[in-house]
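Pasting as-is:
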Amino acid sequence: MEKPIEIREELAGLEAAISESFDFTEYTRDPQGRYVEYLVDPKPGVDLEEGFSKVYDRAVELGYYVILTKTGSTLVLRAFLNPRELKNRKRTMATALFIATIFSVGVTGYLQTVTYNDIARRLHSLGVNVPLYNPAMGALIFTAAVLIPILAHELGHFLVARKTSTPASFPLPIPAPIISPLGTFGAIIQMRHLPKRIKDLAYLGIAGPLVGVALAIVFFTTSYMISPAISLSSARVAMSHRLLAPVQMAPLATLIVSSVASHLMGFGERVVIMNPAAYAAFLILLIHFANLLPIGQLDGGHVFRSLTNVKVHRVISLISTLSLVSVSFIAYQLSWLGFFAVIAFMLTGLRPHYGSANMLSKLKRRDKLLVGSAYIILLILTAPIPVPASL
């Protein structure tokens, strides 16, 4: 069957791009020209990674995705034709989801503030003075505390994807009214093809969490500092009436902030009641820890894969999942993390993570040190730490 004219032209353009950096021989193709495999060899003076990067960029422009691998000692370049996408429809969907998510988070923030005020009034009847918040203003601050770190997280991924020419969708927020205490399940971007180099995967993986965690800490610190603080005796009274409950585990970053605040703000032997915005930032930090787990194709999985290889990544994904499930039986406060790990492994960890389109690329020592250090720091800052009961 003869190939359509546009496919013939795109294939010719792809082969022209390949010929600039490689000597090549066609090995196999499907009748429609939607899948082609070439045996390639870099031309004299051409760096393999740079040569493939040029082919990758041109292939994406033409609608092809390419993968460079090796069979024995032979370099093999595989090209797949990507179906044309309806970009306008995807942008419309992203806009609709964004509006729906703002509404969902705003309503959740309003309800959280109303609930907070109701508890504050009941505490007042017990002689505990806790200031009220304007529900509309509370909803606005809550929405900012939730959406700014989440969208900045995804924007970090998106900008690195754009810079590295990795095909990716616009950030797609996910509204979740009532179901989620934040009013959202976060946001995603869809990578439509592997990044060209393992270095690109490393920075794609770390960029989102780096921005998201930093902003969540800023929002938590700001909101925590203006949260009301009551005496230990008042807290005990409130707990006896089931109006307040102590935090049993917290991200390390929030414990650091509370420790510093106790000295700077003179909280001393007082108990801070997190306002809705502080509580939102608190949860976002825990969510970041879950996302940083070295499982499947979570952000942590991407980073860990860039630092290791396919086999090590698969083994660690499985060990991490089983470990978290085991821990969740011992510490019920972490049962949500065990459940999340299982879901993440089932959805993204069963398949091998090949890393990048250039399957031969390696991460340089400098990049390993930089990305690995950032990854460990983020894991430590967001790690849920048991909080001993002190009331």
